[in-house]
Amino acid sequence: QVQLVESGGGLVQLGGSLRPSCAASGSIFSIGSMGWYRQALGKERELVATIASRGKPNYADSVKGRFTISRDNAKNTVYLQMDNLKPEDTAIYCCKIEASRYWTGSMNDYWGQGTQVTVSS
Fold this sequence. Notes:
Blueprint: E1 2-7, E2 10-13, E3 21-26, E4 30-39, E5 46-51, E6 57-59, E7 67-72, E8 77-82, E9 91-100, E10 108-111, E11 115-120
């Protein structure tokens, strides 16, 4: 089985920073892209950032210049450095990875359970 565990969320004031992480464990042969999504109350889930296996990142326009996604392939972990946080960033943040469990297996999507990020004004 493949399991993702997020940590590092919390409550911060306007302009503060957080750096949640997401670690994958279990029967993993390889990992492709990794990413972060968020869903705020009353809103649809949206893509925040993704990072390819070789490190190429993509960001939602709303977080460009403030968030930085990175990964540590040796630890099967993806990070999201969030700076200059705004109340609009308040949401549950979930990580997703593409991974194969076996050398002959196909890539599948795996989701974490989410970590709460709250930014007060």
